[in-house]
């Protein structure tokens, strides 16, 4: 009979980790932590962030709202939201969010059985690099040629102070991971976490891509990369005090292999035999969160370099092969 | 060249915004260098390496935004840089600053406010009772706007309030005016000698507005909440309010407003009325006239009538039931004729869309005499809106009822609900549309404008079928209300809406038009 | 302090809930304090497991 009113919203999807959380902790009171045009972060206690968004990309601990307009106009920092079991409700009655019909988005659904052959991944990585070179070079992207170790038909970079400053550190970091010198990489991460512009600083987005790729590699090849869990958790732990809460939350999830849906889709297309338009997803990621997308893609390209090599070696050396830390690995030709 | 750092705590902006900002700030005359970023250690390192560090860096946390600038103070001030920053931000981000102290709890608020005497509670229903309890324990009066409070809690809390001689107005109490100050949904009315105790929000509003229009004023307007006169609660607040008005030196006449109370409760009230030294006007909407007269109180046939009788009785003038119109009969007849002439033969149906519950109720009671009206507040169960045969029939809806306000603002606060009903419920068979337009505190900033816009849309839609429609409205507001009563009326009339001086008259006019339509059919 | 005492005093309000009520009162010059309300700890209710309700699974 009646169209949905402005302030009564429905959740289209809910991340499964959030569903679990609400089931375990019903009746929480959250406070609005930050408001963006298409997303709102709610804070429970000191550290737990929940994201409400309507921009079509649902993050871990997130809810996708089915509103087209800027629903965030109803909400401001400091507002209190009651997190009931099946709905969220602003204490001010400004809005309610019905969760009952929401589909569950599996945050950990990235692992499917058929991994792509290495050659495929290499080809995909190249495609991404060439595509990324054509995008506006914001954030860390001016460093693409250097970090991707490609000479490219590249427009003069729209250099910025942040990317200039961090160039060396980023390069050394990627090299350290490539030779699996994870302890060195971890020390270098001290020079990266929290660096860059944005409420998720550029280097954090860069690192997030790494964490996810590392985690996937670890899960697909149990025991092959024994340093990954500790490495990932260390990064997440460092992030707690060294960067914004929003970014630390992102890194925390990434350390567990969890990332927002469009990033998840992109990575899935890169690594698994899953039908999907690579560049379509890349474009979605690029558009998401302004420079965050570009920084993440750069990190992905660099992490894929490691991944290719890591998988190649395990393929070469068979099931029980171990990769020794600190042992120089041959750099694959591109 | 001097260095300055500007800090915004817990400020979050996306990178594009910040990049643009940086660029804009860099362009400013007199700015040699500027870095904008979150106060992470590494960003601050960069700032230091760029030679932009100041002592403020010590206090920065990763969740703070900083603007570190090197400027030529002969050319530009840091304040100007900050202003430029703000200007850029205002384009996208919403900004609302609140300098007021916000207490973390009721207790601390009471401490911060010596002499606090009233607590206004509008938190979710399931938490409200506990807060009311605390307030009463602290010796404060309570106005409880929240609904969905269990009736057992209401009883317990009201008993406590009565014991302590305190007011517990509610739950679901939307209207009160204490010491001349409107609380929640109430109109700006002059102070005076008439005291009101009302269980019905918009009913109370209409009465106070009419009293004001007639030139008198209100001493105190006490709300009781919608359930107060039910058997289980026993009219505790109605009685409490009634007695306090009898004892109040400023009050010379008392008006009681409610839907018909449970018989035992009515009894109690009549008993008090009987011994009241002050005249009592009782509007138990559709209530027992004889019983009211028997105790020497003055019965009413409408909210407007209650106000008129109260004013007349206060002035020692004779009064009688006001069943007619302010305009001369001849003019009313003209209006009715013109209205019906606008309609085609198949335009026979009523669509009454109310935001005020008691006003809707009043409409139902008066209109329901002559026609069968489907409603979400039906006079009999068979007339429940769900029984509406294939959407055909007369409809009168109280859009403020629970089923329409779950999870959304009340239609008095936000006209969107009614706007949608205009679209969904009105078609080529609608002959008459009846609405209330409620002004005052708590109400939307331009309810008349919203109604006018909806009517405009309807008219455009219907004109494509070669049709028009009759729209009748009343405005519950005073010349002191912020929504500009006169302008509101003009706005409505500009859309061809017939604006009547009270809900009762609007309803009566609607009735006449509908009868005329029937005759013509 | 009885109701009739209240009538003789200056109204001083503590507002728990909707900010708009606070703003309206303030605009009339009424002394009012806003409370940053939170529900009391140990809030009861609804222990339904959300997962059992949200059992529609979407392959992403």
N→C terminal distance of chain B: 88 Å
Number of helices of chain B: 18
Mean pLDDT of chain A: 83
Strand order of the largest sheet of chain B: 16-17-15-18-19-20
The major pleated sheet of chain A works out as: 8 strands, mixed, barrel
Principal-axes geometry of chain B comes out as globular
Structure classification of chain A: alpha/beta
Spatial order of strands in the largest sheet of chain A: 1-5-4-3-2-6-7-8
Q: How much strand of chain B?
A: 15-25%
Q: How many β strands of chain B by DSSP?
A: 20
Into which percent range does the helicity of residues of chain B fall? 40-55%
What is the chain-wise order of helices and strands of chain A? EHEEEEEEEEHHHHHHHHHH
Overall 3D shape of chain A: globular
**Head-to-tail CA distance between termini of chain A:** 61 Å
Please give the count of helices of chain A: 11
What ranges of chain A have pLDDT less than 50 throughout 5 or more consecutive residues? 318-334
Total number of strands of chain A: 9
Radius of gyration of chain A: 20 Å
Give me some keywords for this one.
heterotrimer; A: 334 residues; alpha/beta; OB fold (Dihydrolipoamide Acetyltransferase, E2P); eight-stranded mixed β-barrel; 14% strand; globular; disordered C terminus; C: 60 residues; alpha+beta; two-stranded parallel sheet; 32% helix
Structural write-up:
The complex is a heterotrimer of chains A (334), B (521) and C (60). Chain A has helices at 16-24, 118-133, 144-148, 161-178, 182-189, 202-220, 228-242, 245-255, 261-271, 278-287, 291-317; strands at residues 8-15, 28-35, 39-44, 48-53, 62-65, 80-83, 87-90, 96-98, 103-105. Chain A is an alpha/beta fold and 334 residues long. Chain A has two domains: 4-105, OB fold (Dihydrolipoamide Acetyltransferase, E2P), CATH 2.40.50; 109-318, no CATH class. Chain B has 18 helices and 20 strands. The N and C termini of chain C lie far apart (63 Å). With 60 residues, chain C is an alpha+beta fold. At the A-B interface, strand 2, helix 4 and helix 8 of A face helix 1, strand 2, helix 2 and helix 15 of B.
């Amino acid at each position: 009979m009646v169209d949905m009113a402005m302030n009564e919203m429905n959740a289209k999807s809910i991340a499964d980790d959030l569903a679990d959380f609400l089931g375990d902790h019903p009746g929480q009171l959250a406070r609005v932590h930050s408001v963006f045009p298409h997303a709102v972060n709610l804070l429970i206690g000191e550290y737990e962030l929940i994201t409400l968004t309507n921009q079509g990309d649902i993050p871990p601990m997130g809810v996708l709202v089915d509103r087209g307009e800027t629903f965030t106009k109803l909400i401001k920092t400091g507002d209190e939201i009651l997190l009931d079991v099946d709905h969220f409700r602003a204490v001010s009655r400004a809005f309610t969010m019905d969760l009952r019909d929401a589909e569950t988005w599996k945050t950990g659904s990235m692992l499917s059985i058929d991994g792509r052959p290495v050659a495929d991944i290499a080809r995909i990585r190249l495609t991404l690099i060439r595509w990324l070179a054509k995008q506006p070079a914001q954030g860390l992207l001016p460093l693409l040629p250097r970090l991707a170790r490609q000479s490219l038909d590249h427009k003069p970079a729209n250099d910025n102070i942040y990317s200039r400053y961090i160039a060396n550190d980023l390069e050394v970091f990627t090299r350290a991971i490539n030779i699996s010198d994870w302890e060195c990489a971890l020390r270098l991460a001290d020079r990266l976490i929290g660096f860059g512009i944005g409420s998720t600083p550029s280097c954090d987005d860069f690192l997030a891509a790494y964490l996810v790729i590392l985690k996937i590699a670890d899960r697909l090849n149990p025991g092959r990369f024994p340093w990954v869990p500790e490495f990932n958790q260390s990064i997440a732990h460092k992030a707690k005090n060294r960067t914004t809460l929003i970014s630390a939350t992102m890194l925390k999830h990434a350390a567990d292999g969890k990332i927002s849906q469009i990033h998840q889709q992109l990575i899935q297309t890169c690594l698994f035999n899953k039908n999907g338009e690579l560049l379509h997803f890349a474009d979605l990621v690029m558009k998401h969160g302004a420079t965050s997308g570009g920084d993440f893609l750069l990190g992905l390209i660099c992490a894929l370099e490691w991944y290719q090599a890591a998988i190649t070696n395990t393929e070469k050396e068979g099931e029980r092969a171990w990769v020794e830390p600190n042992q120089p690995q041959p750099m694959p030709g591109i | 060249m001097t260095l300055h750092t500007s800090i915004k705590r817990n400020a979050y902006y996306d990178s594009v915004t910040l990049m643009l900002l940086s660029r804009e700030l860099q362009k400013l005359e007199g700015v040699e260098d500027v870095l904008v970023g979150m106060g992470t250690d590494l960003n601050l390192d960069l700032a230091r390496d760029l030679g932009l560090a100041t002592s403020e860096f010590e206090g920065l946390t990763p969740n703070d935004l900083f603007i570190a600038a090197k400027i030529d103070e002969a050319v530009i001030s840091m304040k100007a840089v900050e202003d430029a920053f703000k200007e850029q931000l205002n384009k996208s981000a919403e900004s609302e600053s609140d300098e007021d102290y916000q207490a973390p709890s009721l207790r601390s608020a009471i401490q911060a406010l010596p002499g606090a005497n009233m607590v206004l509670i509008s938190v979710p229903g399931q938490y409200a009772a506990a807060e009311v309890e605390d307030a009463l324990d602290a010796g404060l009066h309570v106005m409880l706007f929240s609904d969905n409070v269990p009736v057992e809690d209401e009883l317990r809390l009201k008993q406590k309030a009565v014991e302590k001689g305190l007011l517990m107005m509610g739950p679901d109490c939307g209207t009160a005016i204490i010491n001349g100050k409107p609380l929640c949904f109430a109109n700006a009315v002059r102070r005076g000698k008439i005291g009101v105790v009302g269980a019905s929000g918009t009913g109370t509003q209409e009465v106070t507005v009419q009293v004001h229009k007639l030139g008198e004023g209100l001493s105190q307007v006490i709300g009781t909440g919608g359930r107060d006169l039910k058997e289980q609660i026993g009219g505790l607040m109605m009685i409490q309010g009634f007695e306090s008005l009898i004892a109040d030196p400023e009050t010379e006449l008392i008006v009681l407003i409610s839907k018909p109370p449970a018989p035992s409760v009515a009894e109690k009230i009549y008993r008090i009325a009987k011994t009241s030294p002050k005249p009592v006007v009782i509007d138990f909407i559709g209530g027992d006239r004889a019983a009211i007269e028997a105790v020497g109180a003055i019965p009413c046939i409408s909210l407007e009538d209650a106000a008129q009788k109260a004013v007349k009785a206060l002035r020692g003038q004779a009064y009688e039931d006001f069943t007619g119109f302010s305009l001369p009969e001849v003019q009313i007849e003209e209006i009715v004729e013109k209205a019906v002439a606008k309609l085609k033969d198949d335009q026979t149906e009523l669509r009454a869309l109310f935001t005020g519950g008691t006003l809707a109720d009043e409409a139902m009671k008066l209109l329901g005499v002559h026609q069968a009206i489907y409603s979400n507040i039906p006079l009999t169960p068979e007339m429940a809106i769900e029984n509406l045969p294939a959407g055909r029939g007369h409809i009168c809806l109280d859009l403020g009822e629970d089923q329409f306000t779950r999870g959304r603002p009340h239609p008095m606060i936000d006209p969107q609900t009614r706007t949608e009903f205009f679209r969904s419920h009105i078609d080529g068979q609608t002959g008459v549309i009846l609405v209330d337009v409620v002004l005052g505190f708590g109400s939307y900033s331009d309810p008349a404008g919203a109604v006018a816009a909806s009517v405009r849309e309807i008219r455009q839609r219907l004109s494509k079928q070669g049709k028009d429609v009759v729209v009748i409205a009343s405005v519950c507001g005073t010349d002191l209300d912020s929504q500009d009563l006169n302008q509101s009326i003009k706005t409505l009339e500009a859309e061809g809406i017939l604006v009547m001086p009270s809900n009762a008259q609007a309803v009566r006019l609607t009735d006449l038009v509908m009868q005329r339509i029937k005759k013509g059919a | 302090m009885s109701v009739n005492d209240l009538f003789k005093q200056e109204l001083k309000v503590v507002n728990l809930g909707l900010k708009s009520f606070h703003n309206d009162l303030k605009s009339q010059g009424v002394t009012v304090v806003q409370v940053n309300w939170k529900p009391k700890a140990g809030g009861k209710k609804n222990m339904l497991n959300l997962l059992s309700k949200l059992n529609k699974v979407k392959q992403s």
